[in-house]
Amino acid sequence: MNQQTAMPQLDTKAPAQKTLPDAQTVTEVRHWTDRLFSFKVTRPASLRFRSGEFVMIGLMGDPDPATGRQKPLLRAYSIASPSWDEELEFYSIKVQDGPLTSRLQHIQPGDQIILRPKPVGTLVHDALLPGKRLWFFSTGTGLAPFASLIRDPQTFEDYDQVILTHTCREVADLEYGRQLVEEVRSDEMLRELIGDGLDKLVYYPTTTREQSPKMGRITGLLKDGTVFADLGIDRIAPETDRAMVCGSLDFNVEIKGLLEDFGLREGANSDPKEYVVEKAFVG
Ligand SMILES: Cc1cc2nc3c(=O)[nH]c(=O)nc-3n(C[C@H](O)[C@H](O)[C@H](O)COP(=O)(O)OP(=O)(O)OC[C@H]3O[C@@H](n4cnc5c(N)ncnc54)[C@H](O)[C@@H]3O)c2cc1C
Asked: Cα(224) to centroid of ligand 1, in Å?
C-alpha cells in the first residue's frame, strides 16, 4: 500500500467562486490514487433521494468560441452518501482526457459544482422483493451507490446478511471501500443493527492485477464456487438472495447471466424482482 493510499490528501480551504445555476459548494476533497478521488458538497435543502440513486453533476463548460456562451457540462454520478446525510458525497474516476473529470479532479473546498436535483436509479430497495441475503456486486467506482446503501439502516433492517463485493485492478483502488466498511462497522447506530459478530456485513474485496489476499474477478469466483466456500455460505438462490450490480457494461452483462443461472430475475422500480443492475459508466 503506498503512502498516498494510507493517508489521503485532505484539502481544507479554497476561495469562493461566482454562483452557478444549481450550484453547491465543495466542502471536502480526498485523493485516493492518481485515478480516484472522492468529494463532498453541500446538500440542497429540498433534495430528497433514495439511497443508491444518481444525479447529474458537473461544471460550466468552456465558452463557445463563436458566441462566448457557456453551457453546463454534466455527467451522471451515484450519490455515495446515504439519504439521511446532511452533505452529499461522490466517488469519482479521473479520466485524464475526460471532458468533465479532467477538470473536476482539481476542485477544492469552497469551489462550486452544478448539481441537478433530480435523483433517479434502479439500485434502490424498492426495486427488490423481500429476501434474506443482499449482495452488492461492484467494480471500480461502481462501489459508489453501495457506499450509500451500506450506510443506510434500512439495508440491515431488511436483510439478515449483506455481502459487499468490490473488484479492482490494484490494492490501492480498494482503499475507499475498505475505509468505508470500517466506518460502518464502528458507527454507533449501524453497529447496533449489524451486531458485534459483524458477520451481518460481509466485505469481499478482490484484485485482478496486483497481488492481494483474494485475487480474481468476482464473476469467476462465483462461477467456480470460491465465494461460497470462502464465506461458508449456501449458493445464491431465488428464495433467499437479492442482488444489486454496478460495474462496467461487460461486468454487468456477465454477472446478469450468472444471476439468471442461479434463478434470479431482473427487477425495476415499477416491477420489483430478485436483482437490479446499473452501469457505473457509459463506454
Ligand atoms: C448511472 C451512472 C452513474 C455513474 N456514476 C458515477 C460515479 O459515481 N462515479 C464516477 O466516477 N463516474 C460515474 N459515472 C460515469 C460518469 O458519468 C462520467 O462518465 C465520468 O465522470 C467521466 O466523465 P468525463 O466527462 O471525464 O469522461 P467521459 O467522456 O464521460 O468518459 C470517457 C471514458 O472514460 C471511461 N470512464 C468514464 N467513467 C468511468 C468510471 N467511473 N470508471 C472507469 N472508467 C470510466 C469510459 O471508457 C468513457 O468512455 C456514472 C455513469 C452512469 C451512466
From this structure: 31
Q: Identify whether residues 79 and 140 lie together within a single domain.
A: no
Q: How many domains does the chain have?
A: 2
CATH number of the domain where residue 61 is located: 2.40.30.10
For a ligand 1 pocket test, name from 81, 120, 281 the mutation site with the most ligand atoms within 8 angstroms of its C-beta: 281
Nearest CA to ligand 1 atom 30: 98
Q: Where are the alpha helices (DSSP H) in the chain?
A: 3-6, 101-104, 144-149, 153-158, 175-186, 188-194, 218-223, 226-231, 249-261
What tens digit of pLDDT does each residue of 159-216 get? 999 999 999 999 999 999 999 999 999 999 898 899 866 579 999 999 999 999 999 9
Residues 151 and 186 in one domain: yes
